Every structure is written in C-alpha cells, then in structure tokens.
Amino acid sequence: MKLNWPEYLSEFFGTAIMMAIGIGAVVFMWSEGSVMTELIPSEPWRRLATGMLFAGGGTAVVLSPLGQRSGGHLNPAMTFAFWLRGKITHTDAAMYALAQTLGAVLGVLGVGAVASEAAATVNLGMTTPGSGYSATVALAAELIITFSLIFLVFWAVDRRSVARYTPYLAGVLIAVLVMIEAPISGTSLNPARSLAPAALMGMFEHLWLYFVGPMAGAVLAVVVYRGIGGETTATGCAKLHHTDQYPCLFEGCGYRRIPAGTVLVQEGAESDRAYMIRRGEAEVRKAQKDGNYAVIARLGPGDWVGEMGLLLDLPRSASVIAVNDLEVEPMTRENFEHLIGAHPDEALRLMKQLASRLHQADQRHTL
Question: Hey, which of 37, 80, 143, 145 would disulfide with 217, CB 3.0 to 4.6 Å?
C-alpha cells in the first residue's frame, strides 16, 4: 500500500493555514468589541468581507506549492466527491480526510492561542443553525450550498479552457454564499471546518448536520454531474490547480507529463487509450525486420496519438516516443467516441490527420 506523505502533509498544512486565516477573519469581524462592527456596521457587508477573507485564504493555499502538490481539496466533502468519481484511491481519500481534520484543528488552535478572549466570544468560529432556523433547514442549506460548490469545481476542472480559474471561481462562490447563507447555517461546506472548533469548545449539539449536509451535497453533485453527461466528457484532474511542478496521484488525470525519451505507445500493445498532444513533440516509429526502426511521422500540439488502434480495436501498429517533454490529454474509448460524436469540428480535424497519414504512407509505398 503506497502512502503519499508529501500530499498528505500538504493537505494538513494547507488546511491549517486556511482555517487560521478564516477563523481569524471571523474573530476579527465578529468578536465582541471588534472595531470592525463600527467600520462595517452592515452585517451583510461584514459577512461578505468575512467570506472574502476566508475564501481568499483557501484560494491562496490552492494556488500555493502546497495546493499544487496535493490538489488543494482542504475539505473532506470535496475529497469524498472525487472519491465517488473514482479520481482518488480509498487509502488516499482516507488520509486526505484525516490530514484535513487535523489541519483544521491546528489552525483553530493557533487562532485560539493568539486571540483567546476575542475568539472565545465567537466560540472559535463554530457553525450553528442561525436564530429562527431549525436544524432541518440548516441541514438542507448545507446540502444545497455544498452541492453548488462541488458541482462548480467539477464543471471547471473538466474544461481545459477554464480549469486554471477553478480556485478563483470557487473562492468567489464561497464569499457570496457566506454573505447570503451564513445566517441560516453558518456556511460550513466542510465537515473539518465545523468539527475543529466544536471539538475544541466541547460543543457537539448540532455537529452532525455539518457532516450529513456537506456529504449529502457531495453525493448529489456526483449524481447530477453524471446525469447530465459530465463523466463522459471529463478530461480534467482532481486537483483544483494542476501545474507541471509536482506529480499527480489522482486517477484519470486529464493532464499527463511524458519526459523526453519515454515510450508513450508501445507497438503491439493493447489499444486502451488515445492521446491528444497539448505540448511537445513525438516520433512515430515502426520496427523493422533488421531490428532497427523507421520514423514514419512526427507529431506535435493538436495531433492525436493512438486513435487508429482505439477506433479499430486493434493492437498498436507502431510505437510513439517523446522527442522532448510532452503534455498529453488521455482519452478512454468512451470519452473518445463521445468527443468525436459531440464535436464535428474535432471529428473533421481527426479525419484530416488520418487522411494525411494515409497519403504519406501511400507516397512512401509509391517511392
């Protein structure tokens, strides 16, 4: 059983930093005697400012080296949702949830140590149902807002054109939700975020709803995303901010780095995936009877690799070697067929590429 300790530690410290900033913002904005009650007397606007600080801290962590390494989930509900999608293994998901929970405790402890009296006036930033709202209503609110956050993340990470904006989109949504929804449930969205202050305060009366609500919201997001066909077009990663700086532990990651000299496709192997080259160049090599090989094509950004074997359900007809560092987008058979059927422009481009290869082969045969 492989344990990815650098990623777990990144989630631990990342969650601790986010919670220290977020709970610190709650204390700063809402503690008794805070100057902010006079500077921002309007509660909705003060909630927005609190949400911006809390979400801003999370966004900063996701964009940081910590988030780039672990993926910046910072939330057991987010990890649970990606686990349901098959993007993260059982072991990694469990370790992420543990790291997030312990990190949240560390972050709240830090705020309590620095601002003990002020922090105590807001119960270390505990989330509880708002005045006049029942636990049932708060539970429903947590389900809905967590669903909206996770669905947005799914939608963003699976679209290469907007994937890089995922941390910002999620941050804006969280800030707005805090402004609008906080009077109902406190806008937890995150079991670890609610557990840490509740455990340290020894107050557990409503804690259950901050587990059930976000987890149910995660399940609903996965079900709805699959229902609208999101899984068949999923090419993204379970990282909220994927870069080339760190390896990726997530299954089915839509980003794959291939170092120069690596065999991407082996001649004679089973055809289980096609690849779109996003960056770099590769050579298509055909084995010869004398033991050498012939270079029959050179591929670059925008070219497909391995599509013929996938379309015809045949073994690989040639090997493909990375000439320099490649970034490719893997496609399963199901996703590949959906892409071709749903995007005629991509189908036409693929047909032109296949026609060009056939023409080149014909020219070589004629010569």
Answer: 143
Cα–Cα distance measured from residue 183 to residue 138, given in angstroms and rounded to the nearest whole number = 9
Q: What are phi and psi of 321, to 5 degrees?
A: -115, 135
Q: What is the pTM of this model?
A: 0.80
Number of domains in the chain: 2
Domain that holds residue 186: 5-233
Cβ-contact 187, 129 below 8 angstroms: no
Dihedral angle, C-alpha 263, 269, 273, 275, nearest 10 °: 30
User: Whose CA is closest to 159, among 234, 225, 227?
Assistant: 234
Ranges of H-type helices in the chain: 5-30, 36-39, 43-63, 65-70, 76-84, 90-114, 116-121, 135-157, 160-163, 166-185, 191-201, 209-227, 307-312, 333-342, 344-366
Are residues 261 and 229 located together in one domain of the fold?
no
- Residues 18, 156, single domain; the answer is yes
CATH number at residue 102: 1.20.1080.10
137 lies in the same domain as 10: yes
Shared domain check, 205 and 57: yes
Q: What is the pLDDT of residues 41-98, one digit of tens each?
A: 999 999 999 999 999 999 999 999 999 999 999 999 999 999 999 999 999 999 999 9
Supply the angle between the helices 166-185 and 209-227 in degrees, to the nearest 10: 130
Domain-embedded: residue 197: yes
